[in-house]
Each structure stands twice: as C-alpha cells, then as structure tokens.
Amino acid sequence: MTELLARFAPGLQEWLVLCAVLYAIGLYGLLTRRNAIALLMAAEIMLNAAALNFVVLNRFTSPQLVDGHVMALFVVVLAAAEIVVGMAIVVALYRIRNTVDISHMNYMKG
Amino acid sequence: MDGASGWMMQHAWLIPALPLASFAIVGLLVSPVSKRAAGIVATLAIMASAACAYLLAWEYFTLYPPGGKHPILVPWSYEWLRYQPGLSVNVGVLVDPISVLLLIVVTTVSSLVHIYSNAYMHGDHGFGRYFTFLNLFTFSMLGLVVAPDIIQMYVCWELVGVSSFLLIGFYYMKPSAVSAAKKAFIVTRFADLGFLVGVILLSYFGFRLFPEWSAEVGAATNGLAGTQPVDFAYLNHPAFLARFSELHVAFLGTSMLTLAMILVYMGAAGKSAMFPLHIWLPDAMEGPTPVSALIHAATMVVAGVYLVARLFPAFAYSETAALVVMVVGAFTSLFAAIIGTTQDDIKRVLAFSTLSQLGYMMLALGVCTTEYAAGYTASMFHLFTHAFFKALLFLGAGAVIHAVHTNSIWEMGGLAKKMPITHITFLIATLAISGIWPFAGFFSKDEILVSALAGGHPLVFGVAFVVAGLTAFYMFRIYFVTFWGHGRGEGAAHAHEAPAVMWLPMALLAVLSSVTGFIPMGEFVSLGEHEAHHGINLAIAIPATAVALLGMGTAAFLYIGDGRRAKSAALAMGGAYHVIKQKFYIDELYLFITHRIIFHYIARPIAWFDRHMVDGGVNASGWVTRTSGRVLSFMQTGQVQTYGIWFTGGVAFVILILWCALL
C-alpha cells in the first residue's frame, strides 16, 4: 500500500498545478461572486494557494530548511487578521445598506 | 577723456542727477506731506541743477575759449550694459558746445517755469503730482541732452515722451485732455518705432564694422580708446560713415546709411512734430500752460532738432537724408504758419507757431553740409533764442488765461491796461519771434535765412522768407486781439495782473529774449572749420525786417478795431479760409486712415483671427480634454470587480510580454 502510494506520490509539478488551480478558483470567485462574504472566502482560497506554494517549494528545493514553513505560518496569521477586518467591514456595510451584494456598492462610479 | 578738468566737469552727472533725486524725494516723501513744500523743493532742485549747468558752461568755455576749437568730451561715464567684450553701453555725460547750450536752455527755462508754476498751479488738485512730473521731465530731458551714446539717448527720449504724456493728461478728469495725451503718446510712439529700427540698424552695423574701423583709425592711439559701437563719437566718425554708406539695401536701391538716417529722422520728426506727424502738438495744449511752455515749446520738441544736430555728420554724409530734413522742415514751417493765422485758441496759435519755428530749425540743419556748416550754427542759435521767447509767449498766454479763464482770443481784448507787465513782456516776445531788431529772433532768423541762401537753396530761402512774414502776421494778430481794443468777454472785464511769482520769470525771459541775440553764436557753436562771425548781412536783414513789418502792418490793419475788416478778408478768401481753419483736414485724414482703413481692413481681420483662431485653439484644447474625460469616465463603474478584471488582465498582459521577451 505504502509502495503503491509511493509510486503515485505527486512530484513538484503536480503540487504546483494544484496551487495554480486553487489560485485560479480563488481569483474566479473574487471576480465573479456578488456576495461580499463569498469574496472573502475566495480571497482566503488564494492566500492558501500561496501558502501551499511556499511549503511545496520548501519541501522540494531545500528540505533541510524551514523558511517556507515559517512563511506559510505568517500567511495563515495574516489571513486570520484579514478575515477579521474584512468581516468587520462587511458587517458594518450590512448595517448601513441592509445587503452584502457588492454590485450595489458603486459609490465610486465616475 | 583727456584734458577734462575742473570740479564741475568731473561732476557733470550732478546736472541730471539733481532733478532725478528731487523727483524721487518730492514724489515719495514731500508731496504727501506738504504741497507747498513740494513746489519749493522741486524748484530749488532745478535751480541747483541750473547753477551746475552754468558752472559747467563757464568751465568748458574757459578751457576752450570761444572762437577756438571745441572738442567733444565725455568727462564722466559708467559702464551700464556689457554684452560682450567690445560691445557695451555706457551711461555718461557728453560735453560739447551744443550739449552745453541745451543744458543752459533746459535748466533755465525749467527753473523759470517751476517758479511760475508755484503761482499758476496754486490751489490746483494734484499740485504735488505736477511738480513730481515736471522734475521727471527735466531729468529725462537733461539725460537726453548729455547722452554720449544713442542708447542713452533713446532711453531718455522715451522718458521725455512718457513725462509729456503724463503732463498733457494732467487734468485727467477732462476727456479732451485724456484723448490729447493718448494722441501725443501714440503718434510719438509710432515715430519712435522708426527711431528704434534706426537705432538697431546703426548699432548692428556699427558693431559689425567696429573692429575694422578701430584698426583703420587706430582708435586706441587716437584718443578714441574706450569708444563703443553705439557712441556718437563712433557713429559720426567719417571712416565709419564711409564704410556704412557702402552697404546697400537690396530692395530700396539706397545705402544703408540713408535708410538708417531716415528712420532716425522719423523719430526726430515725431518728437519735433514735423509734418505729417505734427498732429499731436496742437492737441497737447490741453496740458497746463507752464507745461506747454516748458515741454511743448522750449525743450522737448527741440529734442528732434537736437538729435539731428547730434548726428549731423551722419545726416550730412547722406545727401538724401539731409534733403529729407530740409524739405520736411521747410514744408512744415510754411504749412504750420498758414494754419497759425486762422486759429482762435491763443495756445493753439502758439503751438502752430512752435511747429513753424521747429521747421525753421530743421531746414537750417538740412541746408548745411560739412563744407558749409553755417546752418548748423544758425539752427542751434534759433533753438536757443526760440526757447526763451516761445517760453515767454506761453507764460504770457498762461498769465492771460489765468486772468480771463478762457483760451479764445475773441473773449479777451483790452488787456494792455489791466495787465501791463504781461502786456510788455508779451510784446517783447512777439517782436522777438517776428524778427524785429534788436530782439533775439532777428539775429537767429537772419542767420537761418543767410545759410539757406548761401547754401544754394533759393527756394527754401523763399519759403523761410514768406514764413517770416506770416509769423509776424499771426503773432501780431493775437497780440492786437488780446491786448488792444475793448474787453469782449466776462473774464476780460475782471482781469488783473498776475502775481509777482508769475511775472518775475516772464520779466527775466523778456530780458533774455532781448539780449541773447547779441551772443556771437558762431564763436561758441560751430562745426569743423571755425568761421568768423560775419555779423548782420544787410542785404538779407533789411528785406526780412521789411516782410516782418509788412506782416505786422497787415495784422494791425485787420485786427485793430472791431475786426470787421478781418471778417471781410476771411469772406473774401472763401473756401480756402475754411480749409486752413480746419488745419487742412489733416486730423480728419488721420481719422479716416485709422478708422476706415486700418481699423476696418487690418484691425478687424486680426481681431477676428484672434477671437476665432487663437481663442478658438485654446477653447478646442479645452473641449478635447473635457470630452475625452467624459468618455473615459464611463470606464469608472465604481465596481471593485471591474477594476479587478482590468487589473488581472493587466498582470496577465505583462506576464505575456515577459514570457515572450524571455523565451
């Protein structure tokens, strides 16, 4: 079983493709979803794709170091902070406008 | 340069500097505090300047006694603008017989007019302003007189123009004074355009020919060290003139010298109000009368004559230019004398008389050549004597106007008894201008007539001769109408003698008008070879006096009494009288040319071009910016996601480019 698993163990390329796919999914969500909370979630997916990228490259290029892991931890912390602020904004917006649909949020229209 | 000694010679800059300092002090400090003090300070400054001028004249003629050779000195100069090595413009003081002569004339007349104005302008609104401007004018005029180079001359030339403008428009609440000031300024500025082009031509070619010339005449060893290409010493030098006249203007077929001189003469003609640029001078009489006496009779208007005299070698070198000077001068003197016989405003008659006498001075310069330079002396002599008697006539007219409150001679009359001193001084000035022995005008007019005839211009002599008769006629006409007979107006009945502050300067000028004729001017002012003073040429003096007496007699015949004879004479002349009275419709002609032709065919299209092309271009660029802004603003949806798409697209595009570049 472990052998089988070892035989099909994903290499660097597979991992990077996974990262890219995750990132693309996040970007797509960010550009298309109307719901502000969904946007935050999409941004979260993109952050995680980036963090995963750090870990993968650390693992395959210099396994004896932990720089990438440290970076990934930073990203996680940052994402937590970001989601707090983002949620606060969304809640504040909801209180004012009774909706979280960002297609209505066009005060900056020229 | 060399040989300049004596304290005053070294400090000759004081003569123009005193009025300048007084101009600033009176204008800024004294005038706001006390009007009375402003008049006194201004007058004292000019009198100090006059004392300096007399001292300078005394030193100069002690050093170079009359009858000897009179060098041109530049005892003081200061480098003002340095363009490059070999080309700089100096300000300085030039001392030679004619500048000394003018210094004396300007400071004397100016101080007398200042004294007179203290009474004449008394209680006038703007008393302090008046004296400030009068000081400014005196400074500018003195700066012009002592200019050693043509640039300083030009700067002071414009300064006298602007102070004349300010003083003509002194009563700025009066629309006629404002338009007269504008007219004077525009006409003289138009003439100065020619002068400026002439100055540019002279200095440009002067600078180009300068190195050659320096080498040729050995400037460094010849006492000409430090001469600059704009200095009169250089511009009048025969070696320069010879080279300059060899240059030809391709399209006119004349020499560059002639062109430059005619352009310079255009400026001189504007300032000295020669035909056809004379139209501003009669209107300039809107200014206060003492101003007319100082600026528009004795000093500023002779600046043109002085300029021609200053550049005389250059004018004489170009025969065409000298011919233009002569013809314009002779024509103006006749033309103005004819108009002068019909005017009703006492000051306007005097203005036309000034024009006529300026024409005299110009024609005297025009008839003389470097070989026979008697006209030069005669012109300067007439300038000298004319300044005194014409200033006196104006001051007398001012006293009369002050007494009767009108300018029209037909509302005066019978003033001889009421204003005895004014009457006597005015009579002396009238005799002087008419050329009756022993008054000053007789001698200078005689010299002009002699020089015209001996210079080989019988026609010019004839014109000058006729003008002498006309002068006597129109002067005695206003004399008889103003002072004889019975008072015709309300003002004339209540007229009284002017105060002493006014009649004292007049009395002094009357003395000068009586005695200056006996100065042997040829001993002081002469050009090149000194000529012996040939005394009075009886063959000319007797007919000239006869024609003056004839003019005088005609005036007496027509205007003593009730003036019925004058009316019938005017009727007998019919249409001609009317044309002359309207000054040959020159003003109307000017109006026609400016309004109908220049405004209509030149100014309007230019205005249209300005409004539609220039402004249109500016407006179009505004329109393009605004419209493109409006179009581009549609891209600003305010949707974060739209911006995100653009941003993502941009990043993708950059990556694509990098990709292509790297692979």
Task: Provide structural commentary.
- The complex is a heterodimer of chains A (110) and B (663).
- Chain A has 110 residues and is mainly alpha-helical.
- Chain A has 4 helices and no strands.
- Chain A is elongated.
- By secondary structure, chain B is mainly alpha-helical.
- Chain B contains 29 helices and 2 strands.
- In chain B, strands 1-2 form a two-stranded antiparallel sheet.
- In chain B, helix 3 runs antiparallel to helix 4, helix 7 packs across helix 9 and helix 12 packs parallel to helix 16.
- Chain B is globular, with a radius of gyration of 30 Å.
- The mean pLDDT of chain B is 86.
Topology (elements, then pairings):
The complex is a heterodimer of chains A (110) and B (663).
Chain A: H1 2-7, H2 12-32, H3 36-61, H4 67-97
Chain B: H1 7-10, H2 14-33, H3 35-63, E1 73-84, E2 87-95, H4 97-120, H5 127-145, H6 150-168, H7 175-217, H8 232-235, H9 238-246, H10 256-271, H11 280-283, H12 289-298, H13 303-310, H14 312-317, H15 319-340, H16 346-367, H17 374-404, H18 415-418, H19 420-434, H20 440-454, H21 458-483, H22 490-493, H23 500-515, H24 521-524, H25 538-559, H26 564-573, H27 575-581, H28 586-632, H29 640-662
Helix pairs in contact in B: 2-3, 2-5, 3-4, 3-5, 4-5, 4-12, 4-17, 4-23, 5-6, 6-7, 7-9, 7-10, 10-13, 10-15, 12-16, 12-17, 15-16, 15-21, 16-17, 16-20, 16-21, 17-19, 17-20, 17-23, 19-21, 19-23, 20-21, 20-25, 21-25
